[in-house]
Structure formats: structure tokens, C-alpha cells
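Continuing from the previous page of notes. For each protein in this section, the sequence appears first, followed by its C-alpha cells. Read the first protein now.
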Amino acid sequence: MQTKKSTISYLSQVALIVGGVLVVALILLFTVFSKTKIYLTVDPANAVVTLDNKPLIITDGKVNASAKIGQHILKVEADDYIGFKEQISLGRGRNFSKTISLVGAPKPTVIADGAKFITLSGNQIFYQNQSDKIIYRSNFGLDSSGGITINSTTPISVPIAGTPDLIWSPTRDLLVLKRGTTATLFDFKKYDFLNQKETPLSSDVGDVVFAPDNSRIAYVYQPAGGERSIIFTDLGGGNVFRAANLKSLNIFDPQISFSPDSQWLSIVPRNQSFGENKIYLMNVYTKEVRLIDSDGDQKSAKFSPDSQKIIFSTFVAGQKNFDLSVINLDGTNKKKLNASGDASQLKSFDLGGKIFLPSSSGSGKMGMYDVNTGASLDYFFKLDSAKITEIALTENRNGVFFVSDGKLYFVTLKSN
């Protein structure tokens, strides 16, 4: 009887051992055959290589790594070079090998020193020189290789007193000058210097914006008496109309922005309590103001090129940069974009939903993002420690003017 029990016990142990060996073998088999090898030769040798945004080890320009089978995004980037980006498909039992040589990024051309408040119209770039306080207009031409020629640079204003913010009208023949909380209108008078003058718009002013169709001016009015309103005026500052009561909505000093079709106004409070800073939408014609998203911690907002969505920046604790997200005007389909930055700085790339903005990392890179599909495309240029504060795209979208450290540059867009 003892012998029989011993035999059973022995067989059980053998079965356990065999079963364990089989399990280990299956795990090893699955592990081995669920991955494949990646072999890369990269130039320059100090490039940063990532797979699905996770860094791969590179030694003397060589990468020897393993990855799971399936679809992956391979990126290779280096300072002063145009980055490489490719979706690769890794199959079972097939190694992936590739030689990647990056091409040098274009070097921006300096257009002017001490430039600020840039705006573009056709083949003309406008800016204020911060030394003499005069506004200039430069006529430029672009050649087939992407180079730029400045054909003429002409002063179009008298020196502007003080250090106001400049808000351009869509037609570039009118400015709002904002000194602290006082706003005035500056009419170029067809560049007739003798007749240029400032006229009062309002005191106790917050944000000021022109409607893209040049039909009106909107500004935030918040005097010491406690009133907080959005005011509409005509282009001369007349026909003053109180369009919205912000006090009743507990909204302080908001950032406002018109939609490209001039039918909507986004409102993002800048209350001291960040949790109260939510996204509101105003119908310019009915004057209805409604909350479209209950989440707070919002920084700024801007409409998509087709006026059907709002792109907004959100403060995230512990992060240096703001997350960018998009939402429909009715508050549905909110989703994060694969990008960060200040929404108020972005530009429309096309009417299909593509937006453009500089990298928030301070590198020589800008990005184009499709708010509908989530696709992205990076553009690279050669400039040490770029600190971009303003951008203006050319009409053909082949180049961009930008301000970095007070200098106005132009660079041809070269992508990965």
C-alpha cells in the first residue's frame, strides 16, 4: 500500500515538474515569438531614437533593440536636422533593419531686430520696431527653393507712445492700442502720417478682439464699480452695446476669441480659483452665453479653422506646459490632442481642421496637428534656444514668420 502511495506521489511530482517546464517553455516561446529585433544605423550618431515615444539605446550610431510585433512609430531626431518619422510594421520571425541619415534643417533668415506684434497680409509683413516704436511694412517675395527676398521696408506710422499692446484689425488699417487697462484706436489714415491720431475706445478694459469679418470690436469691460461685461462696438468705437453680463456668471477678466466665421465668441475666465476657469460660448447674434464644459483649470481657447470646434489649453499640476484638447461647440466629443501649448498662440493651417503652433519645448521645431484625425507633422529649423512668442504663416503655407528673443525670422517649412 505504501509502495502504491509512493508511486502516486512520485508521479504527481513528475507531472508537476513536467507541467511547470511546459508552462515555462510556453512563456519563453510566446516571449520569443511575440517580439522581433530592430537594427538601425543612424547619422548623426548622437541622434535621439524613439519607438512609440520611448527612447531606444543608441551606441556609435547603432541601435540593437527588441520590440513586440505589430505597428509602431519610429522617430529619429537631432538638433539642427530634419527629423525622421515612420510607421513601421514588425512581423513574427522578421527582423527590421534600416539606415537613416538625417538631412540638415533650414536656417531661418533674420528679417528685423527688435520686432513685435507681427501680422501678415498677402506678401506683406507688418511689425513694430521696439527701438523706435514705429510700425513697419515689409514687402517680400518667395522663390521656388523657399528663399525669401525683402523687396522694400516702409514706415507706416509715427512713433507709438509708451509700450502698448497692439491688436490688429483684419484689414491692417486700424489698431487698438492697449496701455494697461486703457484702450485707444489708431487709424493709419492710409499711412498719412500728418493725420494719424489716437481716439479713445474705453478705460477699464480687459481683452480686446476684432471680429474676423471686420464687423465689430469686442472687449471686456470691468470698472471699479463692479460691472463685468462684454461690450460690442463698431470699428470707430461707437454704437456701444453691452452684449453679455459676466458678473452674473461669476466670470473675471476672461480671455475671449472670435470664431473665424465671426458668429461665436469663446470665453475663458481667469478667476483666482483655477477650478472656476471653464469654457463658455457666446452666440454673437442671440447674445446667449452657455457653459460647454464643466471642467476647470482652463488657460485659453481658440476656434478650429472651420468654426465647428474649440481648441483649448488646460493647466495640469506638476506640468510645465499646458495640455491641448478639442471639443465640439455643443460640448460633445472632447478629446486630447497629441500636443501641448497655449491655444491662444495657434494659427489655422487650413480649413480642413489643421492647426499650427510652435513647440513648447524651446527646440527648433513647430508642429501641425489635425484636430479631426489626431495626425501630426513636425517642421524643423536650425536655431539655438528658440523662444518663439509669435508666428504668422504665409498664404501658401510653405513658410512661417516668427519672433524669437525679439528678432523677426522667416523659415521655409521642412517636415519629417
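Done with the first. The second protein uses the same format. Note its length before scrolling.
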Amino acid sequence: MLSIVHFTSAGRLARFALVGSALALAVGCGSSGGPGGLDQEPSGSSSQKLLAGSTAFGFAFVRGGVVLGARSYNEHVVNAGQPTARSVYGTNTVMHTGVGTYTVTMSGLGSLGGGNAQVVAEGSNANRCRLLNWLPSGADESIAVQCNAPSGAAADTDFDVMFYVANGTWAGSQFTDAAYAYFSPSGTMPVGGYNYNSSTAGATPNTVVGIGTGVYDVTLPKVHYQNASVQVSTYGGSGAPYCKIDHWRASGADTIVTVRCFDTAGTPATSATNVGFSLSYATSGPTLGEQGGHGWVSGGGMPLSYAGVTGPYQGCSGSITMNPSGNGITVSGLSVWGAPYSSPTMAQVGFTTAYGGDSTYCKLSSLVTSSISVTANVQCYSPAGVVMPSAFTVMTTSNQPSGPC
């Protein structure tokens, strides 16, 4: 059942009104071994700009074929960043339609069309999950997920899933703070509502070009920030195909993200594999306004120039550390705002993607949450499901907004 809340203080903590660019917090100046070399924090960044338009955001953790209410959230913001901003809250449900197959419905989030979905398996096994599709179903958003064992056999699996859509631009922004797109198994990157960046509202679309078997370069226009949350989810295919991030780098005024896709056995995916991917980029988590954090972990270290946190106050709260074992991150110093600005309880999810030129893949082994922190533990595997070290990107997001200092 939907409920409507009218924000009475639109200039302060109205959700999605401010870009959560807390990257300056505990962030270094460069990393010669990082995803894009030197971190590039441009002058005139779009920090503290208002988003004009509408947006929708939802996430859920599905455990044992049921949405766990404590880790589920659903919100459609109308006239984001404006005095008339208002939020419509909905619910998330799941249908277990077959072995390893699920349909997640996020009520009220399908009205804007398009958008981006991400999914990752969670748990102690080596199973992996992918997107089969995501599309409006009336006013709702329907997301189909398939999970498999490394052998390719369908397998019931716990997973985190997220959906985000925006149709506006950041007022006065010269740079892209958020972008998303998907590469279809048919070999195309659709434009329109499935292809977005926050500086142009998709008017200058993201593009993709194949540069080798199963390897793709995705160009994100006006992306100057190399320190960002970059996630990739596998889309389509059969068996247990998977995709990962090779690296991302600056290219003039743009950023290029290189993605690698593999078939079930870990062989670079050919066109016959019929596999695509969904890509999400954002300087502070997918929604640019929610508390959470992101990091790039490689070789047992997490360069601070590729880590960021959005706390309850943008740029002056929250902290992020790498877990002692090097298998994930802990984001601390979070807070619940409560009515009228947010839900009275904290809900969080996490996502991870393997990084590098090899054939490893990664998943969340667990997500440990509280009202003030979250720990995302990551485990990586060979194509056959054998535990193996790998670099990875990891991020967390929540239902709690971040306000100005």
C-alpha cells in the first residue's frame, strides 16, 4: 500500500535534493595503481546542486525466497530538489517462480520507465546471480533474477537487488555525477530511459564498443571523477555467465569503463553466449543522496583515493575502512534521521563486482548492518567456484538521506 509524505523543509534534507559528494572526506590526491590513475576532482564540481526532475529508488535483500523487511526500501520522489518535492513510498515483494528464478516487484517504481537494475548473490556458497530483465508492470517495476551454481545448474540463492531511475539533470552541473546503461545481449546499448547521465539527462548518451571477445569499452560522457562507485551486473545468457570490471580510466572529458564477460566455464563470452551487462556509475552510490560508501580493494589494500563515504552530513561525517582481512569494507558514522525526512529505521544493501583482467568473479559473503554502520564482506572465486583472491569494487547504500553540514 502506498503512502505519500509531503516534505515541509525542501531546502534542507529533502531526499535526493543534494548531490552526496562526500568524496573529499579522507580521500587522497592520487593512486598510480588505481582504476584510472590520478584522481581527478574537477573545479566547479556539481556538489550541492539540486536535481530537477523525478527519480525512483528501491532495493531488497531476498533471503530464502522472501524479501527481508529490515533490508528493503522503496521510494518515488516527484519534483526532486524543488519546494514541491514529495515522496511516495511503496513495498517490495518477490515471487519464487522456479529453481533459482525470482521476480522482484517494486510497487510504484515503474511509472518513469527505463532505469537501471543491479543484482549480486549473497551467502557462503559460490553461486552467482544475474538479471534476466527489468521492466514496468503497470505502475510497478518488475525485476527478473536467475541464480546458478558455478556448474550452470539453477540454484536457489539469496541475493541483493536494486533499481534506480532518474529523468532530471543536476542544476548548473557541468559534470556527470551519476550514469547508468545496459548492453543488450543483442549487441546494442539502448538509448532513452535505460541510458542516463546526470549532466545531460541522457541527451548525450553513454556508448559502448566491443574491443575484443567478450570485452567492451563503455564511454560515459562528462565523467571527470575517477573516484566513484562502479558496479556491473550480468544480464541475460544461459547457464551461469558473468561479467566484471576490467578497469576504468579518463579519456579527455569522459570516462571509459572496460567490462569483461564470460560464459559458464570462464571463457570470454562470444556473441553466441548471448550475455549482456548492466552498468552503474556514481560518485557516492547510485542515488547521490543516500548514506553509504564505496571502495576499490586490490592486493590487500584500499587506496583512499578510490574510496568514499556519504554520512548523515555531506562531506563532514562518516568514515570508511577496509576490513582487517582485506575482504571488504566497513562504513561507520551513519545515522537515522527519522520523520519527516526518512524512515524511522535504517535499511541497507550492498553490491560488489570483481575487478581485473582475469576470469574471477565475486559476491557478498555477508552484509552486517546496524543503525550506525554496515560491513560488507566479499568472497571471490574461480569460474569453477574455487575460492580465489581477486581485486573488487564494493559499495553500500541505505534508505537514509544525507544532509548539508
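What the second structure shows: The CA atoms of residues 212 and 237 lie 18 Å apart. Confidence is low (pLDDT under 50) at residues 1-33, 37-50. We return to this in next week's lecture.
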